[in-house]
Design goal:
The protein has 72 residues and is of the alpha+beta class. The chain is 26% helix and 29% strand. The strands form three sheets. The protein has a two-stranded antiparallel sheet. A two-stranded antiparallel ribbon has the order 3-4. InterPro entries: DUF2093 (IPR018661). It holds the Pfam family DUF2093. This is DUF2093 domain-containing protein.
Length: 72
Amino acid sequence: MNRIDKMGGGPAELVYGDGEFHVVRAGAYVVCAVTGARIPVDELRYWNVDLQEAYATPEASLKRVLEMKSRE
């Protein structure tokens, strides 16, 4: 059995907190809110607590921050 089989092959549902996240529904990946890329849960490093969104890269995270500031 491989890593994906253990976690389920579909998307995970997470609750993002400060410096950690909690798994609501186990899965293999989450989807980047900016790029749409699949991010393996064990490789997830970037998210926004207030927006409850995951990001594939720091650049994607910055892009979302700039989008939100332009709406203010």
